[in-house]
């Protein structure tokens, strides 16, 4: 079970980092760094927050 959660967390972190640096060009560099650090530390929570703030 921990392996599945780890894989999901990794996918969420990669998705947020990709979205922030490649897709969302309107963010400042500081905001991109903050989103990246947040994605590395709080993977799944950051993905959920990013989805509701920037994707909607």
Could you tell me how far the N terminus lies from the C terminus, measured between alpha carbons in angstroms?
Answer: 31 Å
SSE class: mainly alpha
Number of domains: 1
Spell the H/E element sequence.
Answer: HHH
Strand content: under 5%
State the share of residues found in helices, binned by percent: over 70%
The total strand number stands at 0
List unreliable stretches of 5+ residues: none
Give a quick account of the main beta sheet: strands, pairing sense, barrel closure. Answer: none
Query: Radius of gyration over alpha carbons?
Result: 11 Å
Describe what you observe in this structure:
The model has no long low-confidence stretch (mean pLDDT 95). Helix content is 84%, strand content 0%. Helix 1 (2-23) packs antiparallel against helix 2 (29-41) and helix 2 packs across helix 3 (43-54). The protein has one domain (2-54). By secondary structure, it is an all-alpha fold.
In short:
With 56 residues, the chain is mainly α. It has helices at 2-23, 29-41, 43-54. It is elongated and about 35 Å long.
